[in-house]
Amino acid sequence: MSPEDITLEMVLKTFLVEAEENLSKMEELLITLETEPENDELFHTIFRMAHTLKGNASSLGFVQTAESAHVVEDLLQRLRNRTLPVHDRLISLLLQAVDYLRRIVIEETEAGTVSSAALNFFRRLPLAAVEGEEIPVDAPTQDRRKEPGRREGDRHFTNERTKTLRIDIDRLDRLLNLAGEVAIAQGRLGQLLEWKGRREDLLEAHQEANRLFIDLQEQVMKIRMVPVGPIFRPHLRTVRDVARAHGKSARLSLEGEEVEVDTTVIEHLKDPLVHMIRNALDHGIEPPDRRKALGKDPCGRLVLRAFHDAGSIVIQLEDDGAGLNRRRIIEKALSKGMIASAEGLSDEEVYRFIFEPGFSTAEAVTDLSGRGVGMDVVKRNIDALRGSISVESNEGKGTTITFRLPLTLAIIEGFAVGVGSETYILPLEAVTECVELPREESVHPNGDGVISLRGRPLPYLHLRSLFHLGGSPPRRQSVVVVNSGGKEAGLVVDLLHGEMQAVIKSLGKLFHGLPGISGSTILGDGRVALILDVPGLLREAVKRRPERIAG
C-alpha cells in the first residue's frame, strides 16, 4: 500500500467517525427540539452540523451525501427562520432523514453508489415537510422498530469507533515522559548489577522501577477510558420511536454522560441497555390514558445515569412506570417450579426471578417482550463483565435497575488457589471466606457434596474433579466460599496462595466459551494460570445439585 493510499484511508476513517458524531448529535438535538421548539440555539447547532457534514462530504467528492445533507440544511434554515413550524411529524421526518444520511454515507464510501430509496426520500422531503405528510418507511426505520437501538450503518460506524480512540495530548505526553523514566531506571539497574552495587541500592532501584511500572500501567489504562455518553445517546431515539410505535409516550433523560469507563466495558454494555429499555417500555411505562387516570404525566419518564462509586462504575435505569408486580412474579415462579413456596422471600429475592431464562410475566407475545428472553441476556452479559445487578421497585411508582461494574477488564484483583500442580485465580470480589474442608468430607475426593457453614447448608464442587486433574488430594483441603448473583457455593482446593493482581489475557477463539473459565494470566514465575468464571461455576453447581444451592 502506497503512502497516498494510507493517507486516503486515514482521511476516510476520520470522515466516517466525524459523520457519525455529527449525525448522532443531530438526532439527540432534534429530539430535544420536539420539547423546546422556541430554543433558537438548538436550530443553529443542528444547522451547523448538517452544514459541516455537507462540507466534509463535498471536499472528499461524496456528491450524494453532500446533496442530501444540503436538502436537510435547507429545511433547517426554514425552521431557523420560523417560516416552517415545528411539530412532531416534522421531527419524525428529520429523524428519518438522519437514518437515510447514515445509509448514504456508508453506501457512497463503500460502493460509490446510493440506493434509489434513499435518493427518493430526499427528493420528497421538502414537499412532505411543508404539507405534513409521512414518507413511506423504508429499511432504516423498519430495522429500528424490529430491533431498537440497531440501525443500518450503525455496525459500520461502531467498528470504526471501536478501532479508534481520541486521546488527550496531555495523557500522551505523560506516557512519553514515563517511558523515558523507565528507560533511565532500567539503565541504573544495569549499572548497579554490573558494579555489584550494595543490596540497599539495588532494592531502592527496584522499588523505583516498580513505582514507575505501576504509574505507566495506570496511564495506559486511562488512555483506554472513554465516556459513556456515546452509548447512552442513541437510546434517546430508541425510547421515542419504540414508545410511539406501541401507542405510548416516553422520554429518556441522561445523567453522567461524561463518566469514563474502559472501552471494552462499553462494548459489553450495549446489549444489556437495549434489553433493559425494551423491558421498561413494555412492562413499566403505561399507556397515556392509563397514566392520566393514575394522576401521572401522560408521558413516561426514563432516566439512564452513570456514576463512579468505590472503584466501580454504576449504571442505573430508572422509570416511573407500573413497577414490578410481586404477586405475579411469585405466581409465575411457582407455576414454573422454580420455588416450592414464596414464604419468607424478600423483595430482592423475588425480583431476581426476572433474570432467569424463559421467565416472563407478559400475557401476550409482542415484538418487545413476552418470549422470556431479554433480561436473562442482561444478567449473562453483566456476569461476563464481573458485575452485579440489583433491583428496586415500588409497585405503581416505578423501578430502578442498577449495574455495578469494574472500571476495567484488563486487570483483576484476584485470589490465587492451587490444585495439584495448577494455579487458578478467582476474582477477589466473588470470594466470601475460606474454611477447612471437614475430614469426613475428604473421603469423597472426586464428588461434590454439602457442608454445614454456621448452621446453613453450603454445596461445594471439587475443582480437581471438575477440571479432570490427576493426582491424589492432600489430607488437608480448603473450601473457598464464592458468591455471585445471590447464589453461594464452595470450591474445594489444595492450597490457598492468597491475594494478587492479575493482568487478564485472552484465551483466544479456540478456547472461547470454555465452561468455568473466563481468561488467563501469567504468574511471576512465567507459568500460565487460568482465571475462573464464578457465575459459570455456580451454574454448573445448579445443574448438578439444584436443590442444594444456597441463596
Largest sheet: 5 strands, mixed
* CATH architecture field of the largest domain: 2-Layer Sandwich
Report the count of strand segments: 17
Number of domains: 4
CATH topology of the largest domain: Heat Shock Protein 90
Helical element count?
Answer: 18
Radius of gyration from the alpha-carbon trace, in angstroms? 28 Å
CATH homologous superfamily assignment of the largest domain:
Histidine kinase-like ATPase, C-terminal domain
Quote the distance from N terminus to C terminus: 59 Å
Name of the level-1 CATH class of the largest domain: Alpha Beta
Characterise the protein shown here:
The protein is α+β, with helices and mostly antiparallel strands. It folds into 4 domains: 3-163, HPT domain (Four Helix Bundle (Hemerythrin (Met), subunit A)); 169-223; 227-406, Histidine kinase-like ATPase, C-terminal domain (Heat Shock Protein 90); 411-548, SH3 Domains (SH3 type barrels, Roll). It has 18 helices and 17 strands. The chain has helices spanning 3-35, 40-59, 63-80, 88-110, 116-131, 139-146, 154-163, 169-194, 199-223, 229-232, 234-245, 263-284, 288-293, 326-335, 347-351, 375-384, 463-466, 534-544, and strands spanning 225-227, 250-255, 260-262, 300-309, 312-319, 388-394, 398-406, 411-419, 422-427, 431-436, 449-453, 456-462, 478-484, 487-493, 495-503, 517-522, 528-532. The strands form 4 sheets. It has a 5-stranded mixed β-sheet with strand order 2-4-5-7-6. Strands 15-8-9-17-16 form a 5-stranded mixed β-sheet. Strands 10-13-14-12-11 form a 5-stranded mixed β-sheet. Helix 8 runs antiparallel to helix 9 (199-223). The chain is flat, with a radius of gyration of 28 Å. Residues 139-152 and 546-551 have low confidence and may be disordered. It comes from Candidatus Manganitrophus noduliformans. Its EC number is 2.7.13.3. The modification Phosphohistidine is found at residue 51. Residues 207-409 form the Histidine kinase domain. Involved in the transmission of sensory signals from the chemoreceptors to the flagellar motors. CheA is autophosphorylated; it can transfer its phosphate group to either CheB or CheY.
